[in-house]
């Protein structure tokens, strides 16, 4: 395997571990606040997880394609990888609705986490290969400003638009009219059509950090810290006019989450790649097979919910109640312990795959 920047794998693996943790509580009615998404505006630690992954997708594009020529072969490989990600995401959605006979596809959800990763990866990789940093910066600014103007100032059916969860919200309106019943909720989808544009910018900002990591400059950590602080400050200032919101993937949300991503990656880079400390190796193993681990966790979590144990329990519910629920600890703690156990299980799988040199490229 080629030499890798350790901190990037650790960051990616840590993000995947957090994805699994927040997606698999023992009981969704008993979850500590930081492990839930914000109801609408604002953000929690959980709302950092998905943008962190898209950010590191952008960083990884630089590391993977810095020596590649923008030719037909490279574009074909990028296209195939993107289609694989989209296909896996659609499979997970279809599997949930159609288990065990794979029928009744009329309500399958078209958007999703893997679908968004695939689309964002495709366009971010092409922009990196075929343009320069000035063009990428211009595209990012145009998307963020244009998205703000579109959602906040363009009239919708003769009325004023809104950033709230309502019918006169542009993102909700487009998703409802284009996707119909193929959405996460009846009125909106957090991985919907319009919000994919600013999600692309999250990866593009990761490309700038990737450029820093492969540069010859001696002050990489300081540069990333400065980038992080500037993005955070700009994001919080913009929040006054365009609220931080994950479901809408607002422009302020893009900047704030990319700011935190830069600061966290700078810290991990300093500890591992600069100081050489043996830090977070278990996350490095997960980072080397990130998509595979995420897919496996999503797939088997769905099976655990779908397989019935008795009349009133899923396999998930039976396992949770039998092993993790005790009168001596709170329900929220039991729920968290279940999630931590599931996460540890998939980290173990990642460790075994890494030690056996099994690296599955999706």
TrEMBL record:
What Pfam families does the entry give? HGSNAT_cat
Q: Which residues form the Heparan-alpha-glucosaminide N-acetyltransferase catalytic domain?
A: 4-216
Establish whether keyword Membrane is in the entry: yes
One GO term in the molecular function aspect is: acyltransferase activity
Lineage top rank: taxon: Bacteria
Transmembrane residue ranges: 10-28, 48-65, 85-102, 108-128, 135-154, 193-214, 221-238, 250-271, 283-307, 336-354
Any idea which UniProt keywords this protein has? Acyltransferase, Membrane, Transferase, Transmembrane, Transmembrane helix
Protein name per UniProt = Putative acyltransferase
